[in-house]
Specification:
Chain A is built from 31 helices and 17 strands. Chain A is of the alpha/beta class. In chain A, β4, α16 and β5 form a beta-alpha-beta unit. Classes of the chains: A alpha/beta, B alpha/beta. Chains A and B meet through α25, α28 and α29 of A and β1 and α5 of B.
Chain lengths: 786, 306
């Protein structure tokens, strides 16, 4: 049961209104004015130090875990060195209906008088866009791809267990040893390494400073506290903040507080994608939990309360504000910290422990969109664990999601990671596979695959903007067979992948050169050992991703052309192109024919599914294995966040009968409503993709609540999951909600404020979604039992 | 075996992820044609042996493609949509094949054993994970014995577990033919009272009862399914007779009570048929539990639902 304390903190978090805080922008701007000639890492470390020394300290009544990024819950920082918002941006953020951030007059004024004049022309966003080629800009505007680093920093990483064994002082000892060992004669990069290591050292000291300031405040509050039990708590919390992160933690409470300081450090240093994440929390915390439970120092109830207080802290930190295309591709307050439960241990044994079950209870009771949570389900995990997780899933709000730990491990082994690193890794963000604590796995942008087909069918022209974007790959009306189409499609795809990747390489160097992250680098192996920054290849593994979107839509579109134009000749290619150019106006029967009489992906029909595989292979071949600038390579994954709605809004009608500007298919899920043979057929179709060669795929299924009722319903769900995973699926997640309930929520929003649904790789409040996205979720096929 | 693979039968649907036709996750193959015509039947399209169509009026665009495609000119277009003249229709299916919205849904295609096996084989991993398999239902699968036997043998060869969902109305030798290849029988028992049975299903129940007793004697795995229809077989007396008969005949794995529901009602309209039980309401929980308790006096276990 939730304690009164937790109930209040949770309620406070839910009620807090997201708003912008100028605090960080003020400190950073001031610091930048004062910093003289310094290397980039040292500049960043000095800025970090200034924030840690000056930011407001926030301890809320009843809190057991302390620390806010801004001055209060949901007071959200801006990062002007990356993207300095214009007054118009601030106005949009303040006034838009969905995912708004309130901006007060004082902040607008400071932006107008100080921040904008200082940062104008100097931000990463401006630098980056200036470096991109004309064709990159054209393709970006046309909606062929998005650019992740345009308003946010590379992040996409997760912590392993190192902080539970080492205090910051131990990290400093390691750094000093590396500094002492630098060989300025033999190593031409020794000087750069020295700068980076010194910067890391300063960051380690600065996070200790922040903790000490919290300790001091806790003592002050304790001395004024009239309630003796709270007074004692505050003294205890002060002692904890004096201990961690300087020294390694000894208790569950210290461990959680330590992680939280580290989390704040990472999301304050810059605004990295996917926030940051403790990863395999049940593995990391279990030794503390067990020792304290055994000694009687901790009860299961106290542990639950601490964990729940920890949960609230995540919910207090919305994702930093996004505008423009970046807001469209990721339109949510969620910042994708995604806690992993279960899986395997480094030695390959079953990783489920008592804490795994306790975490499932915490997830269930807290019912918060942040943090996200998932189970890593290995064949070695007990059925009981799966069923306990599914009992939470069945409640319908989309957490925890379910990953195939065995496939995830296999993916990492294929990428050349060690067996231990693979087993200690997991998934984060939406569905992205990573070696926790050792990998930088950067998502660089979404790629609109159906748009490539649209351009192919128009001989390189984008019909929406009327611009010749791609090469002239031929007049489709003269194509004789499918290979003509497929070869033109492949040439267009190569063209745009090349444009995207060339841009990526430049952007990667800009971040390496101008915005290193010495604090994050402390935490990720082997940055200290190499004396190299996280943003410059310091991590043990450096992977870049391009995320394919719309595989369902493009498969069905290709299938429609093959079926109706190239095989049965019910339509000529010219007629087909005319149909999509006119959005089927006056041709509803023809549109219905394409919708209903075409083999479609998601029905376990090889005719369609083989096309899905062909597109997958094409995309894979064009991306996988190409080098990035950090000693790693590019790979693919298949997930959309909310980008399938944005990409749909820039893509005209498609040959599968999809109307112009409507959402594309989501993740690797079939086109909404195209899957008509039940969930087993969907899973079979999806499993025909070789998930092992991706860094994550995303499959969502929508079930009516009735079919999952009772022990029998739970068993069926467990069997579906296990079967899909035996077939090699990477991830599956369920919405358990009636379409009627969602329509009801649209009609009477005031009564459904707490309705949470699964969107793509995350859950969100239904009413926080754009109308287009709400409608897209309603239109997904509702699976029922027969 | 080449011979077997080429045998064809009439099927009107193959449904994957079937959860109520035997254990685990199953695929159910629906045979077309049934010797009974139970008034509560929720698959009225299963009764006639010949192909027919369901008309989903709400999907119809009145585009006229069906009328143009019909070689017999059996369809004419009226202001309210297409009108079919059944006396001219030869059931060729051209109208349904061309219908872009699937407003005309064809019921009853010829499938070869090979085609059916290819389809039911697709969910093998789900059967293996869940203890499921293939259920032959209908309509009445025993009405197409050659086809059914060939399918059962083909499933056995490939290690796919099978079940037959039957109304039990068939010559005993047909049942004996299927026995060695069938893993589980789902046997419907509608009423013991011969007049009731005849009145509501159109057939006498003597052969059915004999077949059930025979199956139970063979030590086959049998699950008896009793649809609970208000005003037909839900009296304490009738349920008692059903229970007593089962107890006297042998030991089924379980008896399932399938409470009457109205899910199939709209299909009658789509088939242009009359639903004669429109006054009936589904039994409430209390009524179902009275029936369960009554049956429990004779047999065990009694399970609600399929």
């Amino acid at each position: 049961m939730m304690t009164e304390r937790v109930r209040k903190l949770r309620e406070q978090s839910l009620q807090a209104v997201p708003h912008l805080s100028a605090e960080r922008a003020e400190i950073v701007t001031r610091a930048c004015k004062n910093i003289g000639l310094e290397s980039a890492p040292m500049q960043r470390a000095l800025i970090f130090q200034a924030i840690m020394q000056e930011k407001e300290i926030c301890i809320l009544p009843g809190e057991l875990i302390v620390g806010e990024r801004g001055p209060a819950p949901k007071a959200t920082y801006t990062y002007p060195e990356i993207c300095c918002h214009s007054l118009q941006d601030l106005e949009i953020l303040d006034s838009r209906d969905k995912v708004f951030f309130k901006v007060d007059e004082a902040m607008r004024q400071r932006y107008q008088e100080v921040m904008i004049p200082f940062w104008h022309g100097k931000t990463m966003r401006e630098k980056l866009l200036a470096e991109m080629s004309a064709e990159w800009h054209q393709a970006y505007k046309a909606g062929i791809f998005t650019e992740f680093m345009e308003q946010r920093a590379p992040g996409h990483t997760v912590l392993d267990d190192k902080i539970y064994h080492k205090g910051m002082n131990d990290f400093i000892t390691d750094i000093d040893a590396r500094l002492a060992a630098l060989d300025f004669h033999a190593d031409a990069r020794a000087c750069d390494k020295q700068q980076e290591l010194r910067a890391m050292r300063l960051c380690a000291e600065s996070i200790i400073t922040l903790a000490q300031r919290y300790a001091k405040r806790a003592r002050e509050l304790a001395s004024q506290e009239s309630d003796p039990s709270r007074r004692e708590e505050l003294y205890h919390m002060a002692a904890i903040c004096e201990r961690v992160p300087a020294e390694k933690p000894r208790t569950l409470w210290e461990a959680l507080q330590y992680y939280w300081f580290v989390h704040l450090g990472v999301i304050t240093e810059l605004n990295p994608w996917d926030a940051f994440n403790p990863g395999r929390l049940d593995q990391h915390l279990y030794p503390f939990y067990k020792q304290e439970i055994d000694s009687g120092a901790l009860t299961r109830e106290k542990a639950r309360e601490l964990l729940q207080c920890f949960w609230v802290k995540f919910n207090n930190q919305p994702a930093p504000p996004k505008v423009g295309v970046t807001a469209a591709e990721s339109s949510t307050y969620t910042d994708f910290a995604n806690i992993n439960v279960g899986g395997m241990r480094a030695d390959g044994s079953d990783g489920v422990n008592e804490l795994s079950y306790l975490l499932l209870e915490v997830i269930d009771e807290m019912r918060l969109v942040q943090p996200s949570s998932n189970i890593q389900l290995s064949r070695k995990n007990p059925e009981h664990f799966l069923k306990e997780a599914l009992k939470v899933v069945r409640k319908g709000w989309g957490q925890p999601s379910i990953f195939n730990a065995d496939t995830v491990t296999e993916e990492m082994l294929r990428q050349g990671k060690s067996l231990e690193d693979a087993r200690c890794g997991g998934t984060s963000g939406c569905v992205e596979t990573g070696a926790f604590g050792k990998e930088s796995y950067i998502l660089t942008g979404y790629f609109n695959i159906p748009k490539i087909l649209e351009i192919t069918l128009h001989n390189g022209l984008d019909p929406r903007t009327g611009t010749q974007l791609g090469p002239q790959t031929g007049d489709p009306t003269v194509w004789q067979d499918f290979s003509d189409l497929s070869s033109a499609f492949s040439k267009q795809m190569r063209h745009f992948i090349d444009i995207k990747m060339r841009g990526n390489q430049i952007i990667e160097r800009l971040f390496a050169r101008h915005l290193p992250v010495p604090f994050l680098s402390l935490l990720i192996d082997d940055c200290i050992a190499k004396g190299q920054d996280y943003n410059d290849g310091g991590a043990r593994y450096n992977t870049n991703y391009i995320q394919g979107v719309g595989i369902g839509t493009v498969t069905d579109a290709l299938s429609a052309i093959r079926t109706h134009v190239l095989t049965s000749h019910t339509l000529t290619m010219a007629e087909m192109i005319e149909l999509i150019d006119t959005d089927f106006a006056g041709h509803e029967p023809a549109r219905q024919l394409l919708l209903n009489k075409t083999p479609k992906y998601g029905n376990d029909d090889d005719d369609a599914d083989d096309l899905m595989r062909a597109v997958f292979e094409m995309f894979y071949d064009l991306v996988n294995g190409r080098p990035n600038t950090k000693g790693g390579v590019y790979r693919i994954d298949m997930l959309p966040t909310t980008c399938h709605v944005y990409f749909g809004s820039v893509t005209g009608a498609t040959p599968d009968g999809r109307r112009a500007w409507m959402p594309l298919s989501e993740g690797i899920s079939p086109v909404q409503g195209a899957d008509r043979k039940g969930p087993t057929a969907v899973l079979k179709s999806a499993a025909k993709m070789d998930h092992v060669r991706t860094g994550g795929t995303l499959l969502n299924q929508k079930f009516t609540p009735a079919i999952l009722e009772g022990e029998k319903g739970l068993t069926h769900l467990a069997q579906l999951v296990r079967s899909y995973f035996l077939l090699g699926g990477h991830h599956i997640q369920f919405n358990v909600v009636d379409a009627e309930t969602l329509r009801e929520a649209q009609r009477h929003p005031e009564e459904h404020r707490d309705l949470i649904v699964r969107v793509a790789g995350y859950s969100d409040y239904f009413l926080d979604l754009s109308k287009a996205l709400q409608d897209e979720i309603i239109s997904r096929t509702q699976q029922q039992g027969f | 075996m080449t011979h077997d693979r080429e045998i064809c039968g009439t099927i009107f649907n193959i449904m994957r992820f079937a959860l109520h036709d035997g254990p685990g996750i199953r695929t159910t193959v629906f045979f077309k044609g049934c010797p009974l015509h139970c008034q509560w039947c929720h698959n009225p399209e299963s009764i006639a042996a010949q192909p027919e169509w369901l008309f989903h009026e709400e999907r119809c665009l009145s585009c006229g493609l069906c009328a143009r495609a019909c070689p017999e000119s059996a369809i004419t277009m009226a202001p309210g949509g297409p009108v079919t003249h059944p006396e001219k229709c030869t059931r060729c299916g051209a109208c349904a094949r061309i219908c872009p919205t699937e407003a005309r849904a064809w019921m009853g295609d010829q499938w070869s054993v090979e085609q059916v096996i290819k389809e039911v084989h697709k969910d093998r991993s789900f059967y293996e994970q869940s203890g499921g398999g293939v259920t032959f239902s209908g309509g009445e699968p025993l009405q197409q014995p050659l086809f059914l036997e060939a399918l059962l043998r083909a499933c056995r060869q490939r290690g796919l577990p099978t079940a037959i969902d039957t109304c039990g109305f068939a010559p005993q030798q047909v049942i004996d033919t299927m026995l060695p290849w069938t893993d589980l029988w789902l046997f419907d028992l509608k009423a013991l009272n011969p007049e009731t049975h005849k009145r509501f299903t159109g057939r006498d129940n003597q052969q059915i009862l004999a077949n059930l007793a025979h199956l139970l004697k063979q030590n086959s795995r049998v699950r008896i399914r009793v649809p609970l229809i208000p005003g037909v077989n839900d009296s304490a007396e009738e349920i008692g007779r059903i229970g007593a008969f089962i107890r006297a005949s042998g030991t089924p794995e379980a008896v399932h009570i399938l409470p009457y529901h109205r899910i199939g009602v709209e299909k009658y309209q789509r088939l242009n048929k009359k639903y004669t039980l429109s006054d009936r309401l589904p039994p409430d929980e209390a009524q179902v539990s009275v029936a369960v308790n009554r049956l429990l006096e004779f047999v065990n276990p009694v399970i609600i639902g399929g």
